[in-house]
Design brief:
By secondary structure, the chain is mainly alpha-helical. It contains eight helices and three strands, in the order αααααβββααα. A hairpin with a 5-residue loop joins strand 1 and strand 2. The structure holds manganese (III) ion.
């Protein structure tokens, strides 16, 4: 069985004005589709065929660049689409809010930490909010299509929120203004989904 490009649960223009339809169309239909087909090519006929993407990434041989880049790209974008919603924004509630307050002091302090991770990732990469077993949350960033599930990546736990800071994610609408894109992302975060991921993975 091979991996398939997941459908979006909202229209490509549904996240406007924060993320524009053209960016969504290219990002999902070209970039994510490309990672998906290249991942399938990379695992075809190997012992990785038939495994879940989580299993592949957790046990990844980092020197396997094709699986590292395309498996990461497949997983990271799948999460990215899921943690956004046209009805998003605001702040989390419940036990995720408690965990964020405990780790960062306040939601605003979390937002600053996450925005700094996203803004400070040199070149292409991702900013993450991760949960550790036991419920502690942490912010970190990774280069390229790496992610916290991969071994010894310097960023641990299970990602429950991810922000793509590759230029392909924002350049059409924001050009070089990555901080504006990061700020706009907070208007579309699907905190219900992030909270569900927190509960499932804590
Ligand atoms: Mn991308």
């Amino acid at each position: 069985m091979s991996f398939t490009l997941p459908e979006l649960s909202y229209a490509k223009d549904a996240l406007e004005p924060h993320i524009d339809a053209k960016t969504m169309e290219i990002h999902h239909g070209k970039h994510h589709a490309g990672y998906t087909s290249k991942l399938n090519n990379a695992i075809e006929g190997t012992n990785l065929e038939g495994k879940t993407i989580e299993n592949i990434l957790i046990n990844l041989d980092l020197s396997n660049k094709a699986v590292r880049n395309n498996g990461g790209g497949y997983y990271n974008h799948r999460l990215f689409w899921e943690v956004m919603s046209p009805n998003g924004g605001g702040e989390p509630t419940g036990e995720l809010a408690d965990a964020i307050n405990e780790a960062f002091g306040s939601f605003e302090a979390f937002k600053d930490t996450f925005s700094n991770a996203a803004g400070g990732q040199f070149g292409s990469g991702w900013a993450w909010l991760c949960v550790h077993k036991g419920g502690k949350v942490e912010v970190c960033s990774t280069p390229n299509q790496d992610n916290p599930l991969m071994p010894s990546i310097g960023c641990e736990g299970t990602p429950i929120l991810g922000l793509d800071v590759w230029e392909h994610a924002y350049y059409l609408n924001y050009q070089n203004r990555r901080p504006d894109y990061v700020n706009a992302f907070f208007n579309v975060i699907n905190w219900e989904k992030v909270s569900a991921l927190y509960t499932q993975n804590k």
